[in-house]
Amino acid sequence: FLDPQPPLNRNVSQLATFPHLGHTHLMSSTFTNINIHIIFSTKNRTPQIDSAFADRLYSYIGGIARKLDCHTLAAGGIEDHIHLLIGLHPAVAISDLVRDIKANSSKWLHEDVKVEFEWQRGYAAFSVSESIVPDVRAYIANQREHHAHRSYEDELIAFLERHNIKYDRTYLLC
């Protein structure tokens, strides 16, 4: 489900004609490296992600991201929530990416895996510097061990506080 060698930089060049100057110039290139750590849970945090289909779910989500020209760098979680590390295409809004991942993956789970399934309405997303991508990958890969000692709610609050995001506990896990 992971993209084997996702491009770290995307290069977009365009030719521009300047008739009044009598020549054509190569426009500047655009280079981006936008890594996003996305976290969301099942509706009401019910344990719906069964190990029997979890890897197929992560693979399917990777395909959804690829269709949006994004790259799945890591995917994992436990029965009630998932973590994704995505290399985001600069023209894709995070909200659109998450909407498409949730809608298409829940439809796939209903139709192909034949399970009743819903994601929570909200999500959390955090920017990730390239220098800590290996750490975030390891964190996502070790979710089972991590959650033996920490609840999803405590984990989410820690992320929000680390990133200075204000939150209302009433709406935290909707």
Query: What structural class do you assign from the helix and strand content?
Result: alpha+beta
How many helices? The count is 5
In the predicted model, the low-confidence regions spanning at least 5 consecutive residues are 9-13
Rounded to the nearest angstrom, the radius of gyration is 19 Å
| Overall pLDDT level | 88
Main beta-sheet strand count, sense and barrel state = 4 strands, antiparallel
Number-wise, the strands total 6
Report the helical percentage.
25-40%
Shape: globular
Give the termini distance in whole angstroms: 28 Å
Q: How would you write the strand order of the largest sheet?
A: 4-5-3-6
Give your account of this protein's structure:
With 174 residues, the chain is an alpha+beta fold. α1 (54-67) crosses α2 (94-113). The chain has five helices and six strands. Residues 9-13 have low confidence and may be disordered. The protein has helices at 54-67, 94-113, 133-141, 143-146, 152-162; strands at residues 15-18, 23-26, 34-41, 71-78, 81-88, 124-128. The strands form two sheets. The chain has a four-stranded antiparallel beta sheet with strand order 4-5-3-6, sandwiched between helices.
Descriptive terms for the model:
174 residues, 5 helices, two-stranded antiparallel sheet, alpha+beta, four-stranded antiparallel sheet, globular
Give me a quick take on this structure.
With 174 residues, the protein is α+β, with helices and mostly antiparallel strands. Helix content is 33%, strand content 21%. It has helices spanning 54-67, 94-113, 133-141, 143-146, 152-162, and strands at 15-18, 23-26, 34-41, 71-78, 81-88, 124-128.
